[in-house]
Amino acid sequence: MIRSMTGFASVQRDGADGRLGIDIRSVNHRYLEQTLRLPDELRATEPAVREAVAARLQRGKVEVRLSWHAAVGRGGVVRPDARVLGALAAWQREVLAALPDARPLSVADSLRWPGVLDGAQPDMEALHGEVLAALAAALDELDATRAREGGRLAVLMLERVAAMRAEVAAVEPLVPQLVAAYRDKLLTRLREAAVDADPARLAQEFALFANRIDIDEEIGRLRTHLDELESLLTRGGAVGKRLDFLLQELQREANTLGSKSVAVETSRVSMALKVLIEQVREQAQNLE
Q1: SS3 44
Q2: Which of 60, 128, 129, 209 has its CA 20 to 30 A from that of 192?
Q3: Contact indicator for 180, 35 with CB cutoff of 8 Å
Q4: Half-sphere exposure of 27 (CA within 13 A, CB side)
């Protein structure tokens, strides 16, 4: 399936050691750009997190936010760590001996000291595994979100492709009509001027005019590009960069069509094609 680069996923896991949360946000970007926000307890998991994200996503500006709230006790009872408190008291005596005017620690200061209320430290290896498992679940959710959004975008772009096909079909029979109209107009002017033109010279003039406004090659290339565009949107996968190139080629053919125009209708078709191509381009910028 085609995937958008825009998506969001959120996963929370409760364990014996605490609560783990992962939020992933993804928006449009030309390449894959990762921004990670991790608490100090999970800083060691950063390389593995980056590798896991890069293995699943190819384009987009991705922000991964991890949170960790350690459990503070069992059965609702919070007990300060006596060893940490003893060490803190010893450090305070040393400080006060050197700096008698220093303010002693309050109870609140002591309880806020890192490690006082942490209790038993979590198993970091097990926590690392929990992070990767939760990240995989979050990436699955993000992938599903991006796939749904990509499917909606593909439908919109296929509608524009159908509209472009209709415009190409409308302009194709115009060339013979334009040549016939030019021939009639020129002959009428010659008759009004009472001039006898050389039939060979007239035939040459008509041939030059027909060659100047001939758009068979442009029509053929437009149809080929539209076939490839429809194939990409139907086949799916990572199509963003290929669509960029294909839309440039469509734009070139639409410009050439306009430069060869000698009638209002041909110019209108050229302009309509450019508008439709730009609409597809805007949507293609959202695709992975």
Answers
A1: helix
A2: 209
A3: no
A4: 2
Assigned token pair, 19? 């609560």
Give dist(CA 260, CA 175) in Å, integer. 11
d(CA 5, CA 3): 7
**Rounded (10°) angle between helices 240-259 and 216-235:** 160
Strands 32-37 and 60-70, by their bridges, are parallel
The answer to whether 287 touches 3, Cβ cutoff 8 Å, is yes
- Give the number of residues written for the chain: 288
Let me know: does 26 contact 61? Beta carbons within 8 Å. yes
Report d(CA 164, CA 276) in Å as an integer. Answer: 7
- Cβ neighbours for 159, distance < 8 A, ≥ 6 positions apart: none
Half-sphere exposure of residue 116, counting CA atoms within 13 Å on the CB side? 13
H/E stretch holding 224: helix 216-235
Instruction: Report DSSP letters for 171-197, one per residue.
Output: HTTHHHHHHHHHHHHHHHHHHHTT---
pLDDT in tens, 37-76: 998 888 889 999 999 999 999 889 999 999 988 765 544 4
Report which residue type is found at 79.
Answer: R
Q: What is the pLDDT of residues 150-170, one digit of tens each?
A: 999 999 999 999 999 999 888
Q: In the structure encoding, which two tokens stand for residue 213, read together?
A: 């406004």
The single-letter code of the amino acid at 122 is P
